[in-house]
Every structure is written in C-alpha cells, then in structure tokens.
Amino acid sequence: MTQAATAQAPGAYRVMWMSTIAFTVMFAVWLMFGILGIPIQQELGLSDPELAWISAVAVLNGSLWRLPAGMLTDRIGGRRMTIFLLAVTAVPCFFVAQAHSYAMLLVLAFLVGFAGNLFSVGIAWNAAWFTRDRQGFALGLFGAGNVGASVTKFIGPALITGTAGVTYFGFIEGGWRLVPVIYSVLLVVLAIATFLVVPRHDRMSGASKPIGEMLAPLRHLRVWRFSLYYVAVFGAYVALSAWMPKYYVDNFGVSLQTAALLTATFIFPASLLRPFGGWLSDRFGARRVMYLTFGLMLVTSGVLMMPNGHIVINHADGSATQHLAYAIGLTQVVLLVFLLGCAMGIGKAAVYKHIPEYYPDNVGSVGGLVGMLGGLGGFFLPPLFAYTKVWSGFPTSTFFVIFILTAVCFVWMHVTILRLHEKHAPEIARDIDDSTPAVSERVPS
C-alpha cells in the first residue's frame, strides 16, 4: 500500500494551509508583471510587443518545469521542494527592482517565472498527505491560491502611486520597484515558515520508484485528455486574467482601474470556488462535475461570442425584415464572465480529482504534465485571441476561441464515456463515477 493511500496523518492540514499560503504569494509573483508592466513601459519606453514578452516569458517558465517539479516532489518530498522554490524565486524577484534595461528585465522576468512551478509541487505534496475521500477538497483548497492573480491588482496601483519618488534604506526605490522587493521578503519569510511549520518527516510516494516507472503513465491517452481539460479551465483562466482588462477598455470605454476591478469579478470565483469544486468531486464524482463545468462554459462563452444580433427574413417581394434583435451591455457581459469564472473554478478542481484516483502512485508526474500543458495554454492563448481578432475583425472572437476549445473537450469526454458504456454496460452506468481503484484501473480510456 502506498503512502498516499494510508491513514491521513495529523500534519496533513499544516501541509495544506502552508502550501496554499505559499502558492497564493507565488502566484501573485508569477503574474505581477500584468500590473507592473504599465509603469515599466513608461519608464523604459517599451513597445507593446516588448511589454507583452515580459509577462509571456514569466508564464512560459512557470509552466515548463511543472513535470520535473512534480516528479521531484514524489521523490524527495514537497517540504524540500517548496522551501527551495520559495528561496530561489526570491532572488530574481528582488533584483527586478534593480533592473534598468529591457534585456535585464526580460532575463529576470523569466527567472521569476519559476514561481509558477510551485503548483505541481503542491498538488503532489497534498495528494501524498490526504486520504482519497478528502483529496478533492484538499487539492481544491490548495488550487484556490490562484486568487494570487488578484493580489497585485489590488495592492499594486496604490503602492506604486503612494511611494513614487521615495527611497528606502538608501538603495530601494519606491514606485513599481518597491512591489518586487516586498514580494521577495515575503517569499523568504514563507520559506522559513514552511521549514518550521510543516512536519519534518515528509511523505514521498515515489521515493524509491525508477524514473521510467514514474513516466510510464504519460503514455496513456487519458493523461493527455486530462491535460486538454486543464488547458480549457486553467490555461484559459490565466489568459483571460491578463486579457480582460484590455477587453473591457477597448469595448466599453471604461478606465483601466475599472477594468481591473471588473476582471477581479472573474478571477475571484475562478480561484475561490476551487475548494467547492473539490468537494463536489468528492461527493458526486469528478466526471459529473466536468459535465457541469463544460456545459456552463459552452453556454456563457457561446453568448459572449455573439453579444448582439438579429434574424433577417427575406420575403418573396425582395424586401427583408429584421426580427428578434438583441444586444447585451456591460452589466450582462460582466455577469456572464463571472459565471464563466465559476465554471472554471469548479472545473480546475475536478480535473485534478481524476489524477490521484487513476494514478495514486504517480501524482507528481501526471499532475506535473497536466499542469505544464495547462500553464502553456496560458502562454499560447493570448496571441491566439489577438490573431483571431485581427482575422475576424470581431473583438468577441476571444470567446469564440474559448467556445471551440471547450466544445472539443466536451465532445472528447462524452465520446470516451459512450465508448466505455458500450464496452462495459450495464455495470459501467453504475460505476462510471465510482472512484474505487478497481474501477479506475479496469476502465481504459
């Protein structure tokens, strides 16, 4: 019996809360250039593409290493990996405040991107400490650290404005440069707190497992299907978090501050509902929750990609009349985007509920691959949003991309389930969402 399947240890909740706090701050660091970019662009005279690359390289590096980070967590424990990533990320984060050229800032932004890899570490770490009936909630609560995407949006503008022109300790400048210094101090404090708070005797589900055995599940088509699901619910979340302020400004003429607040109404449910999604997955089964997720995403993105229109009827005499004209305003758009965020928040937990059920001994490698591809979705989707807008001429094409991506996921999932029904009926109808290892192992996908 693996460690992940043994009785839940008393230190499990210390691991869960400490890893969640650390991940929240690391996520804020990972995406901090979304807000810092504006004053950086003004100070260094950067073009829009140059500015975009600063955020892009951070997102890229925060995704590339999720697979090896998850595997290392299974092998040497989440405690060591978390402390290491917190301490290592603090160094380039501090030196961001000392950057005075675009090239240096680009290098430092790439290195700061290591912060994003804490996700796969925390997933594997929490899965090793919690029993299967509580893994959905634990992984969901940890994943709610995505709310860190809003931290800089709230504290950044006021801090930048209030400290501009001030120098601290003779070498720390105020304004936007103070934000990464504060974050670097927080990261060091959290590294020390993790060392002191969580149990020193860690759980490592793959401590003696050969690398080949850890990578073996990656040959399963099911793992890549889970990865595509995560591109839809997480990669699209990261992309929209960065894209929506510009969308609101360009399409509704609101101020940047208002656009940031409206974007927060998407970020908060997409992050904070993740524990609820984990609880739902524990209670009703992850696949049922995925149906709910994709269904709601299809409805909301489908309406958002066509926010106004009408039906034209051509008559026999050559005349034409318009009927059923409709148009939705800013309030309705914000509400629909909020519901889209709710679906993503619930769905992110459901995707990761699958992993310890199907692969209890390989959560690090499987979770790392799923997280890596989901994060890369956050890197590739914004350019795709931009190109489809140029190609189509419609600003709402952003949601067309989300709709198509979600539809592909939904169809693939449903076709897979129909095939399972055909192969294993009638018992599969009863057991498809029963998370027992026997069912999980004997039902291929």
CATH class: Mainly Alpha
* Radius of gyration, taken over Cα atoms and rounded to an integer in Å: 23 Å
CATH homologous superfamily name? MFS general substrate transporter like domains
- The global form is globular
GO cellular component, one term: plasma membrane
InterPro entries: MFS, MFS_dom, MFS_trans_sf, NO3_transporter
Organism: Kineosphaera limosa NBRC 100340
GO molecular function, one term: nitrate transmembrane transporter activity
Keywords:
445 residues; mainly alpha; Growth Hormone, Chain: A; two-stranded antiparallel sheet; disordered C terminus; membrane; NO3_transporter; Putative nitrite extrusion protein; nitrate transmembrane transporter activity; MFS_dom
Task: Annotate the secondary structure layout.
Blueprint lengths: L11 H19 L2 H12 L3 H17 L1 H11 L1 H19 L5 H11 L5 H12 L2 H12 L7 H13 L3 E2 L3 E2 L4 H20 L13 H5 L5 H32 L3 H17 L1 H11 L1 H19 L3 E7 L5 E8 L2 H29 L4 H30 L4 H28 L2 H5 L5 H6 L3
Antiparallel strand pairs: 1-2, 3-4
Helix pairs in contact: 1-5, 1-7, 1-8, 1-10, 2-3, 3-6, 3-17, 4-5, 4-7, 4-17, 5-6, 5-7, 5-10, 7-8, 7-17, 8-14, 8-16, 12-13, 12-16, 12-17, 12-18, 13-16, 14-15, 14-16, 15-16, 15-18, 17-18
